[in-house]
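Recap from last week: sequence in, structure out.
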Amino acid sequence: MISSAHARTVANLAAASCLALLLGACGGGMSLPSFSSSQPAPEAEPGVAPEMPASIRADEIVGRWGLASFQNPADRARTEAAARAQCKNPYVIGAGSSGGVVMHLADQATPQELRLKGSPSGKNYIGPSGPTPGEQDREIVSFDGRVMITRFVDKDAATRYGNMVYVRCAPRA
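Predicted structure tokens:
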């Protein structure tokens, strides 16, 4: 007959073995060192390309702007006039503390600092740090110093907001 002391020891060993198997199945087990010289090299993560500078500087778009939008390109001239009329209540693009501009992202009530980013194709974007073009970026479709037209990269935001027309407001007298 097995004594109770031996039964308890066997039960403890069985519980420890089950626990070790359970932890091993979860990936928490120990890995033993490999003594073979044919280890596969770890895969290199794809590098993030450095941000390209935009051909438009942040200080060129800082200021007071009349703002309107259009969906149909035939409405551009009318929309520019509507944006000019909005200078009574201008949209202010501020200078950011780290060289960017302070603007709103789509559907965001609070403005934040965004970066002007270039791309290999020569297009310019305004958006948060990250890949260009990012989903939250807006493409600068045209800019002549007086009128800037942007379009959101995100298809849903682009459909809702259309082409945003910014017309520079005259300086206060």
